[in-house]
Amino acid sequence: MKGNAVFKRSYNQCLRQLAGQAIGASLPSESELAQSLEVSRTTVRSVFASLIDAGIVTVAAGGRRLVRHPGEADYFPDLQTLSAGAAVARRFMEWILQGDFRAGQLLNAAELARQFGTSTTTIREHLAQFQHVGLLERRPNSSWLYKGVTPAFATEIYDVREMFELRSTRSFIELPDDSPPWRELDVIEAEHRALLANIDEDYRTFPQLDERLHRVIHETSNNRFIIDFYDVISTLFHYTYRWNRSDEKQRNTVALLEHLDYIEALRSRDPRAIDARCRKHLRTARATLARSIEFGPFRSPSSPAGVSA
Amino acid sequence: MKGNAVFKRSYNQCLRQLAGQAIGASLPSESELAQSLEVSRTTVRSVFASLIDAGIVTVAAGGRRLVRHPGEADYFPDLQTLSAGAAVARRFMEWILQGDFRAGQLLNAAELARQFGTSTTTIREHLAQFQHVGLLERRPNSSWLYKGVTPAFATEIYDVREMFELRSTRSFIELPDDSPPWRELDVIEAEHRALLANIDEDYRTFPQLDERLHRVIHETSNNRFIIDFYDVISTLFHYTYRWNRSDEKQRNTVALLEHLDYIEALRSRDPRAIDARCRKHLRTARATLARSIEFGPFRSPSSPAGVSA
DNA sequence: AATCTGTTTTTAATGTAAAAAAAACGGAGC
DNA sequence: GCTCCGTTTTTTTTACATTAAAAACAGATT
C-alpha cells in the first residue's frame, strides 16, 4: 500500500558506499549511517537486514563486515527509487515533453491513474503542484485543464523571472565579499572557466552550472516567494531542456560567456551594468525557450495517450 | 463517504430564489436551473426531489409550482455548504487567526483530521495549498512545519506585491479608455466616493472595494503568476483583516483617499506619478499588516489546540 | 555518560471502496 | 430541429485500511 522507495534508495546508496570499501571492512553503526543517508534508523536496519540476506554483509564479532562487492544486479532499478508521488510528477512532465497532451485538453484522474499505474489519490495529490507551475487548472468536481507550454506561458514566466532576478541581484551586491554567496560565486566562476576550456567534451554539464548560478543569486533575496518561483523555473527547465538539442554546444557556449559577463558586472556592484548584463542573458534564455516551444515536443509516433478529451 | 455540500449549497440558493416568488409560480426547467446555479442537472434533480419532499413545491400539470415560502428552518446551516476541502482551508486559517499555532510548530495530519472532523486524505490534499502561501513547509515522510505569520512573512509578501502591482499598472495604462478594466475602474471610483460619503455607517465594506481595485489592476497584467499571487494576498487579507480592528474607520478612510489619488494617477497615465501613489498606498497597507502582526492574533483563553509539538 | 542495537509505538504514504456529482444517453413531446 | 426529463454511466470526492518509515523507548555494552 505504501511503496518502499525510501528503502530502495537507501539500499542503493549503501551499495555505492560499499563498492569503494575493501573486503572485510567494517560498516558504520546504524545511527551513523541513518544520519549520513538522512533516513531513520528503522530504514537502515531493513537495509542491513537485506544486505545480510543478499550475502553482501555478515555480522561478525565486533560489528558488520563487507563480504563481497556488490554487482550491477544487486542494485534496485532507478525507477523504483522514486516515491509514487515523485514518479507521478516526473511522468507527467515527460508526457508533456513528448507532446502527449495538447493545450486545452482535459485530463481525468482515473485515466491518468491507470496510465501511470498508481491510485487516483496519488494523482490528485501530486498533480496539484502543477497548478502553481501554471500548467494545470483545476475545476471543482470536474477534470484538470492542461494549459500547455505555449508562447504565452514562456512570456509570463520570463516576465516574472526577470523581475525576481533583478531584484535578487540588489540583495546580492549588498552582501560583504566574504559572505558564503560570494564565495560560492567564486567557485561557480572558476567552474565556468574550467567548462569553457573543456567545452567540446563537457558542454552537456552546463545546465547544472546554470542552475547553481541563478539559484545562488535568487537565494540571497531571502524571499520565500522568489525562491519558490525559482524552484518552478528550475523544474521546468530541467525538463524542457531536452526539447531542443540543436546547436546545443553553441548555445551553451554563448550562455557561459554571458554568465561570465554577468558575474563581472555583479563584482562591479554597479546596478546599471548588472541590469544590462542580466537582461541580456535572460533575453537569450527566453529566446531559447521560445524556440524550443516552437520546435515543440518530440511528437511520439504513437497516437496521443488514451486520455479523454 | 463524500459530503453533499454541492447539493446543500444549491438547495439553499434555490430556496433564496423561491423566497422572492409568488405562491403558485412555476419553477424553471431542470437544465435552466442547472445552468444558473452552475451545477449539474443531477444535482438540480435531487434539489427538486427534496423540495417536493419538504412540501415547498408540487409537481402539477405543466411543471413544478411553488406551494409555500421557505422559512428559516428550511435552509441548511451555512457551515454544511462548504466542501470538506474548503472547510479545512477555512478552519486552518481561523486557527492561525486565533493563534492556535505558534511559528515553528510541527503539525500532524492525524491530529488535525481529528480536530477538524475529517479524514487525513482531505487534510493532506488541502493543507498543501498553504505551502504556496508560504505558511507551511512540508518535509517528506514527516510532519508539516508552520512557519508563522511573522514580520519576515509580511516583508516578503509585500516586496513581491509591490513589484507585481507596479508592473501591472504598466499594462493597465496601455489599455484604451473604453476597455472593460477602465470601465470597471470608473465604477470602482464611483463606489469609493459613495462609500466616503457614507463612511460612518459603511466603513466595514471597504475590504471588498479594496479587493476589487487591486484585482482589476493585477488582472490586466495577463500573467497567471501575478494573478495567482494576488489570490494568495487576497486570501491572506481576508483573514488577517480581523486581527486588528482598532481605528478601523480611520484606517479605511485613509486607504480610500489613497485609492482615489492612485486612481487619479492612473488616469494621468504618468508612470512616475503612478509609482509614487502606488508605493505610498502599499506602504500604508504594509504598515497596517505589520501592526496587525505585532498586535497579534486574538489569543484564545483556552490553551493552544491539542496538536503535538 | 554515551553509544549501540533490539522492540514498540506513531505517523505518513498510498491503494481501495463507496457516495455524490457530472456527463452521457435516449425517448417523448412540440 | 429543439427542449425537457428519466435513466445509466463516468468521474470526482472523501473515508478508511494497510504498509513503510519515523520516532520513542529500553536494555546492553563499552
TrEMBL record, chains A, B:
<keyword id="KW-0805">Transcription regulation</keyword>
<protein>
    <submittedName>
        <fullName>GntR family transcriptional regulator</fullName>
    </submittedName>
</protein>
<dbReference type="InterPro" id="IPR000524">
    <property type="entry name" value="Tscrpt_reg_HTH_GntR"/>
</dbReference>
<dbReference type="Pfam" id="PF07729">
    <property type="entry name" value="FCD"/>
</dbReference>
<keyword id="KW-0804">Transcription</keyword>
<feature type="domain" description="HTH gntR-type">
    <location>
        <begin position="82"/>
        <end position="149"/>
    </location>
</feature>
<dbReference type="InterPro" id="IPR036390">
    <property type="entry name" value="WH_DNA-bd_sf"/>
</dbReference>
<dbReference type="InterPro" id="IPR036388">
    <property type="entry name" value="WH-like_DNA-bd_sf"/>
</dbReference>
<dbReference type="InterPro" id="IPR011711">
    <property type="entry name" value="GntR_C"/>
</dbReference>
<dbReference type="InterPro" id="IPR008920">
    <property type="entry name" value="TF_FadR/GntR_C"/>
</dbReference>
<keyword id="KW-0238">DNA-binding</keyword>
<dbReference type="Pfam" id="PF00392">
    <property type="entry name" value="GntR"/>
</dbReference>
